[in-house]
């Protein structure tokens, strides 16, 4: 039934409450398991709602906070969550992940502070495979177990895209022995952005010209507004350490314009020498971090995995979190195993 039809049914129900009274037959199990109630077509066992009403809740949950749904239908939010969890888990039990070969991993904040959820994606089919709390090695192991439960052998996963979080790397090496790790350009440039900002913070203690310029150094020149471009031009004559760090960051972006892995490695070696001789400690530390993950950085030329899919999913997850208001527990816990 279409969403518009379900909403029309709800409008009628809101004006005229309907109660279904039926004597449901009971049968005695010949195997000695006791007396059982016959399943009826308009509801599932012990639900308390009709199947049509549950379908309406599922449609509404795509667009509304759970608390708002509960208030609208006159039910406690716990019962609404019970319906949602039942149908989501039922759908997951039937999921087939046997064709998964390339996996993307990402984390996002579940609430303020150091509270995270880890998300795992099929990069080929573009779907969310698994979500759970925390971002440790056990998180990756739990994902591998879940893949196995859905007809996917972890040994068949060939490529994994993740950030340089050590727990993720250990988890991938332990649970996906045949997979190559790719650190995509977003994760690499994020490290450099942090290093440039740290140089700016240190230098701002001795010069006033860097005040209120943080976001200038985090943008690429093509994305600067006219006002920001004029401000950037006014800083060129001050021989700033931050400007040197910024130039090293911009040059690293050219890595992803190289035609192949061999050219990329040659470019990265030249860049690494420049960065480690810059006498800018945050830049040196960032370059050494990239050096420690050298193969994973260069694997990008083989996998060409991009951040776009993960970013798109991340925005959907944030929207889902907003709609989950009214829940007393985090809505992204470990899914039940089938």
Describe, in plain words, how this protein is organized in 3D.
The chain has 338 residues and is α/β, with parallel strands linked by helices. It folds into three domains: 3-93, no CATH class; 102-183 and 306-323, 2-Layer Sandwich (Nucleotidyltransferase, domain 5); 185-303. It has helices at 3-15, 51-61, 66-73, 77-93, 137-149, 166-175, 185-204, 214-218, 226-234, 241-253, 261-276, 281-292, 294-298, 300-303, 308-323; strands at residues 26-28, 35-37, 102-111, 115-122, 127-133, 159-161, 180-182. The protein has a five-stranded mixed beta sheet with strand order 5-4-3-6-7, with helices on both faces. Helix 1 crosses helix 2. It is elongated.
Structure characteristics:
single chain, 338 residues, alpha/beta, Nucleotidyltransferase, domain 5, 3 domains, 5-stranded mixed sheet, two-stranded antiparallel sheet, 51% helix, 11% strand, elongated, disordered N terminus
Coarse morphology: elongated
Task: Name the assembly state.
Answer: single chain
* Order of neighbouring strands in the sheet with most strands: 5-4-3-6-7
- One letter per element, helices H and strands E, the order comes to HEEHHHEEEHEHEHHHHHHHHH
> What is the CA-atom radius of gyration, in angstroms?
27 Å
Total number of distinct structural domains: 3
The first-to-last residue Cα distance is 28 Å
By DSSP (H or I, 4+ residues per run), the number of helices equals 15
Strand content: 5-15%
For the secondary structure, the number of strands is 7
Biggest pleated-sheet summary? 5 strands, mixed
Mean pLDDT: 84
Structural class: alpha/beta
Low-confidence stretches: 1-5, 7-12, 331-338
Percent helix, as a range, is 40-55%
